[in-house]
Write a structure and sequence with these properties.
Layout: E1 4-7, E2 30-35, H1 37-41, H2 46-63, E3 67-72, H3 75-86, E4 99-102, H4 107-115, E5 119-122, H5 131-139, H6 148-158, E6 163-164, E7 167-168, H7 202-216, H8 235-249, H9 273-277, H10 283-295, H11 301-325, H12 343-346, H13 356-368, H14 373-387, H15 391-401, H16 407-418, H17 435-441, H18 462-473, H19 475-478, H20 485-489, H21 497-507
Helix pairs in contact: 2-7, 6-11, 8-10, 10-11, 11-16, 13-14, 14-18, 15-16, 18-21
The protein binds flavin-adenine dinucleotide (FAD).
The site of flavin-adenine dinucleotide has 28 residues, from helix 9, helix 11, helix 14 and helix 16.
Length: about 500
């Protein structure tokens, strides 16, 4: 009996089909299921829905007769239909499963595939480190705290990544010090070649048509704008984007990695996250291409190390922690934050916002479903944290509104890194700041109605007021954290704390 192989919509690259001990049968028929219920359950950004559907349909077109593309209400129904066509389902007379699937990327999808008779779950692909190796690494720490930096060095050694023998290539493990520059003065846009932009085709046109129809029929609701598609939807496009980044833009990646410019949202960032998360690219080929560029003298070590750290360090760490921390992690709420997200935020209503930094960032999310890591962490996430919004709702918002958002990547990044809801399992301190940080790292405070140095009054920067109000609210917890205790002591020097707290309360959930 034929053993078919099922591809989820984030398993679209060739490495999910290469045969081998832990792979599908050679030339196995492929099943791809477009489950409408996924879009009914959550109100996604329309550009994200467009990208995911376009990528799935592009993959089916590439595979031609080998693929059976099913449009169904649920995965269960889709699989039943596919197996009816291909011939299969259940187990053959020797007890062999008739469908294989690689370990999916969410707890819910893993539960689903494990519950289906005749479906055999193969190990995960698309990451550098197998789960068992990570578990051995984590368990081997013998009670010592899990730290991203230790994990990252272990991956570099284990994969011989950017290494010269036993020592880190370029003489240092960590080039963060060179990679935290504020933006160059008097510069509106970085002097970097433009990123790769895909060209839409007939598949995109069909996707747009379907999304319009679903919306018209009232079946699904989206948020955000679905302008021209900006992110790769096929392997060919993803490879072109990777090549363009490594050859033309990697050089400038490092220095301004954490900086923000109002008129240049992308700066030197790679825009590769959606391609990696759709499975169109393998992380190994990205970091190897960057290392090759350094060895050939085409990119400086700080940029290459910074990029390798993001992928082999952060991305891989986040993936591992998602499984290591388990299902209940999503409900973590150490700070007891329970305020609902206000409508202006849910609707990506950038025009309602006065604070220029937040308005600019929210407009980027509304228009593209993407901003780089610092606006996510230090503007959107920080604002949510300061206002005490429910971390689970914040996680859901990020998941729905970002083209690269998936359960596995959201939980550690939002619950842990951005909202400190796990009380410090992921990071050693909450990431939030007053307006001074935003002012130093961006040009967003120029022309703003607020002043980063003012914490009370009409021109008080909402981030500055919000920062002190946050420290005050969690003084008890944070004064015991040695990375925060000095900041907390700063509260004692504020002569206007009562007024500041009144102002923070009065702001409520109104747009800042
Ligand atoms: P670059 O800056 O060019 O970095 C290169 C690559 O490194 C990225 O493509 C990405 O694959 C990887 N990377 C870097 N940091 C992380 C990280 N913390 N977690 C996972 N991968 C990382 N990334 C997502 O892929 N999906 C998300 O939904 C997501 N949500 C985030 C939410 C918050 C609150 C924060 C703080 C970060 C989030 N990130 C997420 C990480 C990071 O912001 C994005 O990966 C990055 O901005 C994508 O743009 P880029 O491809 O140009 O990245």
């Amino acid at each position: 009996m034929t053993t078919a192989h099922w591809l989820f919509g984030d398993q679209l690259g060739p490495h999910f089909l290469s045969p081998g001990e832990d792979g599908p049968d050679r030339d196995a028929p492929v099943v791809i299921i477009e489950a409408r219920s996924v879009f009914r359950r959550r109100r996604f950004h329309r550009a994200k829905a467009h990208l995911v559907l376009s990528a799935m349909r592009h993959r089916a077109a590439e595979l031609g007769d080998r693929a059976r593309y099913i449009r169904a209400d649920t995965y269960r129904e889709g699989l039943r239909e596919a197996l009816g066509d291909i011939g299969g389902g259940g187990r053959d007379s020797a007890g062999k499963a008739t469908v294989t699937v690689h370990h999916p990327t969410s707890h819910a999808a893993l539960r689903l595939v494990r519950s289906l008779d005749g479906v055999s779950v193969l190990p995960a692909r698309g990451f550098l480190v197998p789960h068992a190796d990570f578990r051995a690494f984590a368990d081997g720490l013998g009670g010592k705290r899990l730290r991203q930096e230790d994990f990252y060095r272990w991956v570099r050694r284990g994969h011989d990544l950017l290494m010269d023998g036993d020592t880190p290539a370029g003489g240092r493990w960590n080039h963060d010090h060179d990679n935290r520059e504020p933006p160059p003065k008097d510069t509106r846009v970085l002097d970097a070649p433009t990123p790769y932009r895909p060209r839409e085709d007939a598949i995109d046109e069909e996707v747009r048509h379907d999304l319009d129809r679903w919306e018209r029929d009232g079946e699904v609701r989206f948020v955000g704008r679905d302008g021209p598609r900006r992110f790769p939807a096929s392997r060919r496009e993803a490879l072109a984007a990777l090549r363009r980044f490594v050859e033309h833009r990697l050089t400038g990646f490092g220095a301004y990695e954490d900086a923000m410019l109002a008129a240049d949202p992308v700066m030197s960032h790679s825009l590769l996250s959606s391609s990696l998360n759709l499975g169109l690219l393998h992380p190994a080929e990205c970091v190897e291409a960057a290392e090759d560029a350094w060895r050939a003298g085409r990119a400086p070590v700080n940029s290459v190390e910074g990029f390798v750290r993001q992928i082999a360090g952060w991305r891989e760490y986040v993936w591992q922690l998602y499984w290591y921390f388990g299902e209940d992690y999503r409900h973590s709420n150490t700070l007891g934050h329970d305020a609902p997200l206000p409508d202006w935020f849910l609707e990506l209503d950038a025009d309602a916002v006065t604070a220029r930094c937040l308005a600019t960032t929210l407009a980027q999310v509304r228009d593209t479903g993407w901003t780089h890591h610092i606006p996510r962490l230090m503007l959107l996430g920080s604002h949510a944290l300061q206002r005490g919004w429910d971390p689970e709702a914040v996680t859901d918002w990020f998941h729905r509104c970002f083209v690269d958002g998936y359960d596995w990547v959201m939980l550690p990044n939002v619950v842990g890194m951005s909202q400190y809801a796990d009380g410090g399992r992921m990071t050693t301190k909450p990431y939030t700041s007053g307006g001074a940080y935003v002012h130093r790292m961006s040009d967003l405070c120029g022309g703003c109605a607020y002043r980063p140095t003012e914490r009370v009054g009409d021109r008080a920067c909402p981030f500055t007021t919000g920062y002190w109000a946050f420290l005050h609210r969690h003084r008890g917890l944070l004064s015991g954290n040695n990375r925060m205790s000095q900041a907390v002591r700063g509260l004692d020097r504020l002569g206007d704390l009562d007024e500041l707290l009144r102002q923070a309360r009065a702001a409520g959930d109104a747009p800042p």
